[in-house]
Specification:
Elements (H helix, E strand, L loop, with lengths): L4 H19 L5 H6 L1 H17 L3 H13 L21 H4 L7 H8 L5
């Protein structure tokens, strides 16, 4: 079942309102619908907040948005050639893991404005 953009936007707006009310975080609803990476980061944040703050309505909203935007299966990134992969440095070992919630949140903090 393919949802209309207005339905997707409505779900993103619901998540925005819940995150704003519970955490004080301002999100970009239109970007959430258009950019799967941003949407995944906001869904991950919503799920983390739902668990830590015991807010099942936020978990339900995250589930509905993930289903509407078909975020469950992220596209597989193209693997770089083994010879071209740089060795990890000390600075990169301290950076958050690319798939972690902390890493996703760090990429988007400050980019909304």
């Amino acid at each position: 079942m393919d949802m209309q953009d207005s339905d997707k936007m409505a779900l993103a707006a619901q998540m925005h309102v819940l995150l704003r009310r519970i955490t004080g975080r301002v999100t970009d609803t239109e970007w959430m619908v258009r950019n799967p990476e941003y949407a995944r980061a906001m869904v991950a944040l919503a799920r983390q907040t739902a668990v830590t703050d015991r807010r099942p309505e936020l978990q339900d909203c995250a589930d509905r948005l993930e289903q509407a935007l078909a975020l469950a299966q992220p596209p597989a990134p193209a693997a770089p050639p083994a010879a071209a992969a740089p060795a990890p440095s000390a600075a990169s070992s301290k950076a958050p893991a690319p798939g972690s919630i902390v890493g996703a949140a760090a990429r988007y903090i400050g980019r909304l404005r």
